[in-house]
Specification:
single chain, 303 residues, mainly beta, six-stranded mixed sheet
Length: 303
């Protein structure tokens, strides 16, 4: 019984000693947020790990609309010994940013000349340079960004994507009525980033199409073409060309109306079909249009 009392008293004194040490630590570092009870792998009980509680990275930014963009990595820890904050772009081979308090942050690699190293997201000396402040963000910075926060005892990381989006400079749809009873539908887009996807639909039914896409100086040019029998179409049918950029959650559409049996027109205008006013244009088969289509495909295939 006496041994049990001594053990209990010893346990109480040990618990008080641990609590006193934690109190002393908090007084010495009042700016460090205290975490809920948790233990890092292979770390003795009572020592808390570092934890990233929020990473803020803009998902999509339209190119040219911002002079700067901030990527923030908010974390908590009770142990600042050996604290290092790193940011990685796409892979973990080399950090693009590194901060070891109380030293000045460093910009490396792709972001070497793109960062505002004086930017402070907090007045906390162990938090103030945790964020990236990227100046004049361009499309080359589209990718995945990983924040890694580590101490001598633990490490945590989180990753988020960011897309710098450029809308198209041109988007066209052409109906080329061939002499052999077929309709060639051509859809093209220029100057967009990231990579677009084109789909041609007739009466809300997607068609099998031949497509080509090339990257010219960081901007995509894409062309898709589908041929359908005129006799298989209803007298009047809606033709759509849908463009989407999945990484940017962007969608655009061209809409046109095709008349299988176009109304009689005057000789001066018998080469043209009626079109809806909001998209594309339609024509009967003309040598110049066919030539342009062939040239466009040749250029895309040869680059």
């Amino acid at each position: 019984m006496q041994d049990d009392i001594l053990k209990w008293n010893g346990f109480q004194r040990s618990s008080q000693l641990i609590e006193n040490r934690e109190t002393i630590f908090e007084l010495a570092h009042p700016i460090i947020t205290r975490l809920p009870s948790e233990r890092a792998p292979n770390v003795p009980a009572g020592v808390h790990s570092v934890r990233i509680i929020n990473i803020r990275v803009p998902e999509v930014i339209q190119y040219g609309t911002r002079d700067a963009v901030t990527l923030d990595c908010d974390y908590v820890t009770k142990n600042v010994t050996g604290l290092v904050v790193k940011w990685f772009y796409n892979d973990r081979s080399q950090p693009v940013y590194q901060w070891i308090p109380p030293q000045r942050p460093q910009a490396l690699g792709l972001l070497k000349d793109k960062l505002d190293l004086t930017y402070k997201v907090s007045q906390n000396p162990y938090m103030q340079h945790r964020a990236l402040r990227i100046l004049q963000p361009g499309t080359e910075l589209t990718g995945n960004y990983t924040c890694v926060v580590s101490t001598f005892l633990a490490e945590d990381e989180k990753t988020r994507p960011m897309t710098i989006f450029v809308p198209e400079t041109r988007f066209d749809m052409i109906q080329d009525r061939l002499q052999d009873g077929y309709l060639n539908i051509i859809c093209s887009v220029e100057g967009v980033f990231p990579k677009p996807e084109l789909v041609i639909l007739v009466g809300n039914r997607p068609l099998n199409a031949k497509s080509s896409i090339k990257n010219f100086e960081g901007r995509y040019t894409a062309l898709t073409s589908a041929v359908v029998s005129v006799d298989s179409l209803p007298p009047t049918v809606e033709i759509l060309c849908d463009m989407q950029v999945p990484l940017a959650n962007y969608f655009s559409r061209k809409r046109d109306i095709f008349y299988r049996d176009p109304p009689l027109t005057s000789p001066e205008s018998n080469n043209y079909l009626q079109t809806s006013p909001d998209a594309g244009y339609s024509m009967e088969s003309m040598p110049s249009l066919v030539f342009v289509s062939i040239v466009m495909f040749y250029i895309l295939q040869s680059r």
